[in-house]
């Protein structure tokens, strides 16, 4: 017995050491990710300034080119009618033409250098983004293992007896938790965090615009800044609501959708959403109801955010064996031959439909809006009692 106890203590010591090393590795990877993210954001700001410089240099170049053409015509006239001009006028025409030619050459060289700098920044940004994504993936994987070990195998002696039966289930749950945390983190980073960074940059530009172009142009920039802040606030509220629509557990799909769409119209006063539910709606398992809600939510969000729709029609039809849903908008639509294969919204909807063993179809064309169709079989076992 004493020998067995000593062996378990040694195993627990090895286990604790392994967990500490993995936890430190996770922190190191996280630091690399954060440093890369800060470099990425700094490089993005630098890229904005470079693009502004390119725009300025191109404008100046176009002006210099026009002046150069004018000076050449002047020089040609002077050369042709040499006797009609004084020596000073001839010399001045040559000097002006030569000066403009030099300035234009310098301008073109500056433009070329700025373009090289822009392309280099684009390349480095792509590499940094790849590094960030890889680091996030590694953090996620290590966190899954560490969480599993610390939560389920802390008492090694007892865990060794039960791990074989619970390992697969526990890992799946933890992976789902980590993926959800990663998704929320990425939404905050790509949404409100990026918007606030842009607000910070743009607020600095407003002062520059005021000094260079006057209060009228600065006011226009300020209006744009106000719109960015409003969008950021909307994204924060959306993320909070997206974490879990609590009403769905108490009320079901249809009442929750009504409340959600009504709230959405409060946030988007220019958007009108027409909702219709046909047939007697029923209660189902929580997983079924939340999946249906998410499908409609994603479709409506895409219609407003990406399609710039002002009218959205949502119809849910309850049949004996299936539940059908249609989300239609009058927005900008898109070319289905150029669908973004890596669109996480569409991928997420397809995955939910696959889990529910349903059918999913999108019909869209540029300038003709988008229609999204869902057909989900109703399993009698999933109907709430």
Automatic annotation (TrEMBL):
SMART domains: HATPase_c
PROSITE patterns xrefs: HIS_KIN (PS50109)
EC number: 2.7.13.3, 3.1.3.-
A Pfam family reported for this protein in Swiss-Prot or TrEMBL: HisKA_3
Predominant cellular place of this UniProt entry's protein: cytoplasm
Record has Coiled coil as a keyword: yes
Any GO molecular function: kinase activity
Coiled coil: 111-138
Domain of life assignment: Bacteria
Catalytic reaction(s) noted: ATP + protein L-histidine = ADP + protein N-phospho-L-histidine
Locations listed in the record: Cytoplasm
Chain ranges of the Histidine kinase domain: 183-380
InterPro entries for the chain: DegS, HATPase_C_sf, HATPase_dom, His_kinase_dom, Sensor_HK_TwoCompSys, Sig_transdc_His_kin_sub3_dim/P, Sig_transdc_His_kinase_DegS
Keywords per UniProt: ATP-binding, Coiled coil, Cytoplasm, Hydrolase, Kinase, Nucleotide-binding, Protein phosphatase, Transferase, Two-component regulatory system
Job of this protein: Member of the two-component regulatory system DegS/DegU, which plays an important role in the transition growth phase.
Protein name: Signal transduction histidine-protein kinase/phosphatase DegS
């Amino acid at each position: 017995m004493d020998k067995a106890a000593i062996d378990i203590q040694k195993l627990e010591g090895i286990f604790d050491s392994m967990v500490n090393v993995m936890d430190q590795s996770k922190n190191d990877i996280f630091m690399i990710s954060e440093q890369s993210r800060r470099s990425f954001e700094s490089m993005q700001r630098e890229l904005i300034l470079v693009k502004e410089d390119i725009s300025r240099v191109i404008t100046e170049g176009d002006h210099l080119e026009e002046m150069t053409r004018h000076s050449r015509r002047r020089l040609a006239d002077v050369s042709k009618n040499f006797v009609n001009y004084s020596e000073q006028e001839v010399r001045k025409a040559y000097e002006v033409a030569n000066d403009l030619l030099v300035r234009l050459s310098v301008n073109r060289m500056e433009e070329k250098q700025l373009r090289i700098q822009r392309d280099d920044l684009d390349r480095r940004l792509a590499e940094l983004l790849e590094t960030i994504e890889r680091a996030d993936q590694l953090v996620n994987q290590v966190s899954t293992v560490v969480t599993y070990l610390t939560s389920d195998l802390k008492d090694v002696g007892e865990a060794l007896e039960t791990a074989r039966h619970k390992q697969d289930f526990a890992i799946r749950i933890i992976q789902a938790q980590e993926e959800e945390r990663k998704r929320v983190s990425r939404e905050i980073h790509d949404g409100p965090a990026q918007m606030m960074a842009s607000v910070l940059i743009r607020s600095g530009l407003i002062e520059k615009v005021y000094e260079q172009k006057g209060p009228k142009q600065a006011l226009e920039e300020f209006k744009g800044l106000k719109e960015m802040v409003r969008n950021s606030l909307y994204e924060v509220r959306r993320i909070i609501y997206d974490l879990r629509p609590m009403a769905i557990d108490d009320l079901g799909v249809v009442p929750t959708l009504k409340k959600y769409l009504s709230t959405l119209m409060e946030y988007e006063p220019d958007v009108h959403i027409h909702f219709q539910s046909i047939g007697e709606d029923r209660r189902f398992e929580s997983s079924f109801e939340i999946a249906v809600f998410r499908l409609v939510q994603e479709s409506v969000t895409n219609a407003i955010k990406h399609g710039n729709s002002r009218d959205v029609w949502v119809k849910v039809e309850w049949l004996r064996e299936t539940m059908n849903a249609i989300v239609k908008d009058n927005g900008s639509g898109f070319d289905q031959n150029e669908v973004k294969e890596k669109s996480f919204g569409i991928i997420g909807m397809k995955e939910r439909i696959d889990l529910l063993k349903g059918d999913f179809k999108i019909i869209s064309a540029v300038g003709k809006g988008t229609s999204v169709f869902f057909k989900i079989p109703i399993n009698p076992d999933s109907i709430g009692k």
